[in-house]
Amino acid sequence: MSFTYLKPMPAPEAIKVQFPLTKEGAAIKAKRDKEVSDIITGNDDRFLVIIGPCSADREDAVLEYIEKLSKVAEKIEDRVVVVPRIYTNKPRTTGEGYKGIASQPDPNGEPDMVAGLVAMRQMHLRAIHEFGLSAADEMLYPENWGYVEDLLSYVAIGARSVEDQHHRLTVSGFDVASGMKNPTSGDFSVMLNSVYAAQHPHHFVFSGHEVETSGNPLAHTILRGAVSKHGNSTQNYHYEDILRLAEMYEEMDIVNPATVIDVNHSNSGKQFKEQIRIVHEVMHNRSFTSDIRKLVKGVMIESYLVEGNQKISDNQVYGQSITDACIGWEDTERLLYEIAEKA
Length: 343
Fold this sequence. Notes:
The chain has helices at about 10-20, 25-40, 60-75, 115-130, 145-150, 165-170, 190-200, 240-250, 275-290, 290-295, 330-340, and strands spanning about 45-50, 80-85, 135-140, 150-155, 175-180, 200-205, 210-215, 220-225, 225, 235, 260, 295-300, 305-310, 320. The chain is α/β, with parallel strands linked by helices. The protein has a single domain (about 45-340), classed as Alpha-Beta Barrel (TIM Barrel). The chain has an 8-stranded parallel β-sheet with strand order 2-1-12-11-8-5-4-3. Strands 6-7 form a two-stranded antiparallel ribbon. The protein has a two-stranded antiparallel sheet with strand order 9-10. The longest helix is centred in the first third of the chain and has 19 residues, at about 25-40.
């Protein structure tokens, strides 16, 4: 078998010209980039909350969610910096299933990568222009960076990508905070090696060019739990886990030691309601010791308008996830205020 080349992809600059970020939008992003980076470097003691749907499956529901989120974010901005999750690519363990709006603008339709790029960019633009919130996205495909590099204030590298050389080197050229998740095995060394690689300069091939990067000092870790050899979820958000991570950070040539706790995935065993309890444990641990408070900069939460999830074939409940289950808006709003009280 061989590749079948269907159509050429438009260049990032062509998409940017067609769907531009305004000067006002660029100023919003620059301000938020600095807020997030200052939290990672320790120059801002506010708490970072990266929150939103597991996957940004439809623009109308995602933007309604972000509108609600923006109102709460404004009320708690003295203690918390809120970054909405607009995750437009969805990693699949077996390669089967919905791969996100960037690949499949209509979850029930055929893949359309060009339309997907447009949908991805438009959603991020609207979040900035209409609600003043630049977002986080997962860089599942490094080649997508050029299409959104002027829009994102946070980038995540997933558990299945973090061991990949191309992802590590690409992050070394990013100018925003970038979280490297622990792999599904849970190995902290793999995750920290990825941070080390991303923080240092490199010379490689990217997007059809020979490039050099300066290194990304804002690269840091994300703890998302793991899966044991027997297929059971194992957690890594506990007090002892954070202290171990802090010790391992000290042994490496890494600047700005920082971690974000992903409270879903294997940390919750995909029991979405557990996210609320886990957030409270994280906040308690930060209050218990200054070492943990200094290292744990934020949490990552999966949340949408309606709690739970549904099958793509049904997809009848507006604002409910078609991938991993999320907490609903009422729980989300309450949790954000509770985080602000304890931050």
